[in-house]
Amino acid sequence: MSYTSSLYLTGAEVGLSLLGLVLLLVSAWSGPKSGRLLTVITGAALLAAAVFSAHLFDRATGDVAGRAFGDLYRADAFGSFAKVLIYLATAAVLVVTPRFFAQVGGYRGEYPVLMLFNAVGMGMMVSASDLMTLYIGLEMSSLSSYILASFLRQDDRSAEAGLKYFVLGALASGIILYGVSLIYGFTGTTNYEGIRAAFDTDFSTGALFGVVFVLAGLAFKVSAVPFHMWTPDVYEGAPTPVTAFFASAPKVAAMGMLLRMAMDPFAGEVDSWRQIVIFAALASIVVGALGAIGQQNLKRLLAYSSINNVGFILIGLAAATPAGVAGALTYLTIYVAMVVGSFTALLMLRDPTGNNLETFADISGLSTRRPALAWSLLALMFSLAGIPPLFGFWGKFVVFQAAVQADLVALAAIGIAASVIGAFYYLKFIKVMFFDEPVREVEASSPMGHWAVLAICVAIISPLGYLLTIPLGEWTAQAAASFVAAM
């Protein structure tokens, strides 16, 4: 394949990288005053990248034309679907970011540039078809994430979150890299197809250790139990817009990377890794639900909710079928809308002096002060709990259906039973917002940009979201078809 074709297939990453370099120079020359302008430009570029990725969606995965740079990068339906979610989620977070930093200070043009480079890394992660490409994308995303977590240098909590994320993230990257070295040592290649062919011929104990190390490192990136310990502290300490970003776009990228690894190079050894995924799924559901019950800080609660929801997505992966992959992608799509809407609602919770509110005590009696915001937050929490007729129910339904079709009836039954635990802390929102007496004054209005993002997210997770079931089912099925040959 010519370099021209390869550059075209990687057009989203190349374009965003070049723009990031230009914006970095603009930020250095113009100083902090350029922050809002660069945010607008970055958001527009991410939307354009999403459109371009959607344009490549129907690229035939078996066609050489879908492979770039000697099959280091694959432009297939799966990667395009994941990248559309990543770019849209990143753009949505950018819309609600500047107001937060306007109050606490410290907003600079480097912020949207870091988000841009992070998006480039995430795009490479989900489209990588070689372990080297995967690791480069992973590090590009991770390095900018460490800086974003500690972006508020004057805030001790933000600095602590950045340090914790850096130390544990470096550990996870080392685990992945060690697993990659073992796989290369026992297969002689880093290409996904070569790895799968080598495993079909001889899957030794050393290769199994390599697979386990890689999956363990990826489990850290998706914050699955038992590699979840960083999530509550980082979510609480990082600036709220950064937390919203961590809970959405990087989650899609990490889960997409995990799905591709499991269903492409490791597809022939399902029985070797399925038990690991089943344990991580059930443990994440239970630990996420139980850990959230006693939380008073809303950001920490949503961190445990994120761990809980990762468990349900992993049930789709455990099925190891096209239906399971499609179910996981469907759940991811709905989850992005739920989590972006939830954090947008938190960003709209401010006292009259502009300080952000983050605890249950802060939202007591919210229905009497901000009824529209209270009802929106209620719908989002109920959708996260999977309560019908909200669209979050459909996400759980499709992954459980895939598990049952794969003869994992016990896994589906335990997952359904464990999901009831999570309903408890979501119901707490009703009690606090609608039945408790107000404790603090709440700002009476919010910017139109925040309302627009919140309204879109609430519309998606409302019963209106079921209008998306047919096209979403077709898109996720086509994305899952990228792995049919491997499976």
Summarize the structure.
The protein has helices at 3-9, 11-30, 35-55, 77-95, 98-104, 110-127, 131-149, 156-187, 192-201, 205-221, 231-237, 240-247, 249-263, 270-293, 298-319, 322-347, 366-369, 371-385, 392-405, 409-435, 448-461, 469-480, and strands at residues 67-68, 73-74. It has 487 residues and is mainly alpha-helical.
Shape, per Cα inertia axes: globular
What low-confidence regions span 5 or more consecutive residues with pLDDT below 50?
none
Proportion of residues in β-strands: under 5%
The neighbouring-strand order within the major sheet is: 1-2
Count of helical stretches: 22
- Give average pLDDT, whole number: 86
Secondary-structure-based class equals mainly alpha
Estimated helix fraction: over 70%
Order of secondary-structure elements: HHHEEHHHHHHHHHHHHHHHHHHH
Question: What gyration radius follows from the Cα positions, in whole Å?
Answer: 21 Å
Number of strands: 2
Largest beta-sheet characterization: 2 strands, antiparallel
**Gap between N and C termini, in Å?**
26 Å
Provide the number of structural domains.
1
GO molecular function, one term: NADH dehydrogenase (ubiquinone) activity
EC number: 7.1.1.-
InterPro entries: NADH-Q_OxRdtase_suN/2 (IPR010096), ND/Mrp_TM (IPR001750)
Transmembrane segments: 6-25, 37-57, 77-97, 134-153, 165-187, 207-230, 242-263, 275-294, 301-322, 328-349, 372-394, 406-427, 448-468
What do you see in this structure?
It is a multi-pass membrane protein. GO terms for molecular function: NADH dehydrogenase (quinone) (non-electrogenic) activity; NADH dehydrogenase (ubiquinone) activity; quinone binding. It is an enzyme of class 7 (translocase). It comes from Erythrobacter aureus. It is found in: Cell membrane; Endomembrane system; Membrane. The protein is an all-alpha fold. The chain has one domain. It is built from 22 helices and two strands. It has a two-stranded antiparallel sheet. A hairpin with a 4-residue loop joins strand 1 (67-68) and strand 2. Helix 10 packs antiparallel against helix 13 (249-263), helix 14 runs parallel beside helix 20 and helix 19 runs antiparallel to helix 20 (409-435). The mean pLDDT is 86.
